[in-house]
Amino acid sequence: MAEINVALECFGCLLTLILLGSLLVSGDRADPSNRLFVLVLLVNLFCLGADAWAWQWNGTEHVWWNWVGNLAQYLLSYGLLLLYCRYLLERVDLWREGVWVRRGVWLLAGAGALLTVVSQFTGLFYTITPENLCQRGPGFWLSHALGLGALALTGGEMARRRRALWREERSLALYVLLPMGVLVAELVWPEITLLGLGATLTLVLVFVNVQLQQNLRLREREKELAEKKIAIMLSQIQPHFLFNILGSIEWLCETDPPKAQEATDELARFLRGNMDSLRSTRTIPASRELEHVRCYLNLERIRFGDHLRVEYEIETSDFFLPALSLQPLVENAVRHGVTKREEGGTIWVSTWESKEAYLVTIRDDGVGFDPARPQKDGREHVGIENVRSRLAAQCDGLLTIASRPGQGTVAQVRIPKTTGQGKENPHADHRG
């Protein structure tokens, strides 16, 4: 029987190592819940190893090794119980809110660890016989009752405080009921050690379900980004913009045909750029986005003439950013900045790099605004927020806007180099 138990615990160790490897390779290390789950897996691994060690030396002449293995296994089990209950409660944001249940879990796990130490002198939980055999003590049932109590507290709190979540995520019930069932089974069948393997299978269930949920959230996030991209694209091809440009081209056909042909080519490139960006699911080279900005500004200069002046200071374009992330900023500078001034103004488009990041600045000397006051112009201003969210989601980018009434506006995009936004960016869309 000892060989079977050792084999079961070793199998549990193998499963735990696979989960640890998967989390360390593909998991989000910045996520506190992932870090906590890694700690749970590590404690479970040591707990399984200690139990396998104890069974290996059970009934042999090595009394010391048997005693150390059993003591470590019991103490680690209560540590695992505490960490696991905390993980479940933090998943539903109840660890900090549920003060009493948190204290209850700490009390039960602490009592179990303390009684384990007491058992070394009283044999409450287990005893080591002169033949070096580990036998259950009169209070063995209490060691499992403490675990059942902590799990019951955790499950009850989740059911009471998160009923809606409980209905949507039925697997939460299994996270509690499965280990409780294993504890009861081990009381009924003392010959086979079920606790370690049962805990490991529960962690496998948690891991698989968490991965499924993360994939679902990722698909929803990609769908949201796609919808935002469509919204931005449509906002850039507004009827009044096309109407004004076509009107300007019609006038140029009569007064300056070569200029009209040039404007038509610019409009074609601009529209193609918008359509291409709709198909871009990843970041694109900055040079491509800057070219699209040039097309837009050239078209606007046809409309506004000398009232709109543009200067470029491009020191680098060797990085990547989301499609249509600069045009809304330039459009704001045109529509709400320089063209609001009677004498017009200038827009400066500049790029450079620091040691930590690539930076793009869109600056104008237009009318500006007071950032502390909400703008009461009847517009929704969704374009800027869409740009901000897509920058953060696709390349950890940051958009900052500073403005002062009468002095203009400065919009700056910062792309950190730590996200890999360089020549070898694997997420880049290189289509021309």
How does this structure look, described?
- With 432 residues, the chain is an alpha+beta fold.
- Helices cover 63% and strands 12% of the residues.
- The protein has helices at residues 2-26, 32-57, 63-91, 99-122, 140-161, 163-168, 171-188, 195-236, 239-255, 257-279, 286-304, 327-335, 382-395, and strands spanning 126-128, 134-136, 284-285, 308-314, 320-321, 345-353, 357-364, 398-404, 408-416.
- α5 runs antiparallel to α7.
- 35% of the residues are buried.
- Residues 420-432 have low confidence and may be disordered.
Entry keywords:
alpha+beta; disordered C terminus; 432 residues; single chain; 63% helix; 5-stranded mixed sheet; 12% strand; two-stranded antiparallel sheet; 13 helices; elongated; 9 strands
List the topology elements.
Blueprint lengths: L1 H25 L5 H26 L5 H29 L7 H24 L3 E3 L5 E3 L3 H22 L1 H6 L2 H18 L6 H42 L2 H17 L1 H23 L4 E2 H19 L3 E7 L5 E2 L5 H9 L9 E9 L3 E8 L17 H14 L2 E7 L3 E9 L16
Parallel strand pairs: 4-6
Antiparallel strand pairs: 1-2, 3-5, 6-7, 7-9, 8-9
Briefly summarize what is shown.
With 432 residues, the chain is an alpha+beta fold.
Largest beta-sheet characterization: 5 strands, mixed
Class by helix and strand content? alpha+beta
Unreliable spans are 420-432
Q: Element order, helices and strands?
A: HHHHEEHHHHHHEHEEHEEHEE
Characterize the overall form: elongated
Helix share of residues?
Answer: 55-70%
Please state how the strands of the largest beta sheet are arranged side by side: 4-6-7-9-8
Rg over alpha carbons = 32 Å
Beta strand count:
9
Strand content: 5-15%
End-to-end separation in angstroms reads: 68 Å
Mean pLDDT: 81
Number of helices: 13
